[in-house]
Design brief:
Structural class: alpha/beta
Number of strands: 19
Number of domains: 2
Shape: globular
Strand content: 15-25%
Oligomer: single chain
CATH topology of the largest domain: Nucleotidyltransferase, domain 5
Helix content: 25-40%
Number of helices: 14
Length: about 425
Amino acid sequence: MPVQAKIVTIPYAPRTSDHLDVHRALEAKRFGVVVSHRRFGKTVLAINQLLRAALKLKRERPRFGYLAPTLKQAKTVAWDYLKHYCDPIPGRQFNEQELRADFPNGGQVRLFGADNPDALRGGYLDGIVPDEFGLMQGRVWSEVLRPMLSDRRGWAMFIGTPNGHNAFWEIQNLAAMDPEWFLFEFPVSQTKLIPDDELESARKQMTPDEYLQEYECSFEASVRGAVYAKEMMDLRTSGRIREVPWDPLIPVDTFWDLGMRAATAIWFSQRFGPQERIIDYYEATGEGLPHYAHVLQNRRYVYGTHWAPHDITVRDWSLGYSRREAARKLGLNFRIVPQMTLQDGVHATRMLLPRCVFDARRCNAGLEAMMAYRWEFNTRIDEFKPTPVDDWAAHGADAFRMKGVATVEVDDTLKPKKRKRELNYPTGEGAWAL
């Protein structure tokens, strides 16, 4: 006897006609962007879009994903929603460790974090929802997610609230121009989902930029708490992010932020009198020093000084020598960046940035990091902490801070003012070209 299909009712209904329009748009186009104000309900919409797709797709082992900036955020924001809406499905199973829901038809919805994008490689996806894409590295889409959709012709829907000119802003611009994409923008003045008295209260407690960004979907408002907000805006408006040629007659200095499990970031710079030309940027995760030595050799620059933070001198107990000594064996002779407080290093970097021009193409990933680098916010006391958020943006920003701090040693105009005592800079060995 044929098995009679059982009707399962998911406890979800689109909140407004706007939400219904978004669901329908994915039936017509593979890619889309939803820009919405806070409390619009974008996460609930996304989870139910993924859930419905995993249950209805007539393919073997359907795979769908929700991607947050970090795995911790994915669990905090979306895991309870996923379990709640899956609950009526007979035979569904949850994997708490992998944040995964499995269904009797072989379908699966899983939550991911973009804090280790390379860990996503190797699988396939029938659909993905990156949430708050502006807080992720732009390469997560182009290098990782987009290839995962290819063999199954999967779809992607980016959702989020603006946070300055970053990867989400760029993908929104793409959606506005590309007929393969759909674009929805839902400011609160259009949706009317939040009562007027609540909005008025929010206006009184937020800066105008914060209100425009969080409720009116403005990409022009500054990133909240951005460490280098003014300096990065000045770079754009003054045309100092453009094509910057490499001069083979002038040595290229490099400035590093070293990581092993975390990313290693490298800036490449040439000095032309008072002007600093930032000609290149490179970043990778999980690679050893031989990889980066090879990268530098392939660039074929004539190198001047390689600058690294002081932790390169820490001896690795398992090897019996430091990474600085290991680098020397590979032809990389590092000079140690003077030790300086974070605040003084940020000040030196702010003083340096007006002298810099950046190559728009080769430095794009590093500029994304500089623009997204922001102070951590303490919600309990409603103010910013004196420490930046330790996320993907920190690697590129910390590497550039090495340049700011290193330049202090040769340029008195960049030294922090009102110092109680002179800094004692440790002397380092000179570097030589590969």
